[in-house]
TrEMBL record:
Record-linked InterPro entries: Acyl_CoA_acyltransferase, GNAT_dom
Name of the molecule in the record: GNAT family N-acetyltransferase
Limits of the N-acetyltransferase domain: 1-137
Gene Ontology MF terms: acyltransferase activity, transferring groups other than amino-acyl groups
UniProt entry tagged with the keyword Zinc-finger: no
Keywords linked to the UniProt accession: Transferase
Pfam families: Acetyltransf_1
Length: 137
């Protein structure tokens, strides 16, 4: 599934936001931001459980040139709008990551703690991945 719409654009240039989802329920999905030339300039990867209405932000990245223009916030806001009413958490956060998610929590009043998956389905996927990795070595 792919959709297009314009995010808040710095300098009036249209930035394109694409939503990509894997076919498997609970699989990794992502929002990708592209600049007017089509280069990837930001990405938010997440997994969500439809049944429990919980989700987990795996990774949030905005390239250096486009930072501090609200694109990271735009990505998180798009995610919250896309999966309204879900509870979220994040993987382990770096220091700038913690400050960013604390600011997002204040802005959206949605709590974004870091820690383990919020439901057994997402946890199960993690365990299966571990098992696969362990068998591979
Ligand atoms: Zn679940």
């Amino acid at each position: 599934m792919t959709g297009f719409w314009n995010a808040d654009a710095p300098d009036g240039q249209p930035v394109r936001l694409t939503y990509v989802s894997t076919a498997a329920p609970g699989g990794t999905a992502e929002f990708i931001l592209r600049d007017p030339c089509g280069r990837v300039i930001g990405r938010l990867r997440f997994r969500a459980c439809h049944e429990c209405r919980t989700g987990r932000i795996l990774d949030l990245w905005v390239c250096d040139m486009w930072q501090r223009q609200g694109l990271g916030r735009g990505l998180v806001r798009s995610l919250f709008a896309h999966r309204r009413g879900y509870r979220w958490n994040t993987t382990l956060q770096s220091r700038p990551g913690r400050a960013f998610f604390a600011a997002m929590t204040r802005e959206t009043t949605l709590s974004l703690p870091h820690g383990g998956p919020l439901c057994p389905h997402l946890m199960g996927w993690l365990r299966r991945t571990w098992r696969r990795l362990l068998h591979a070595y």
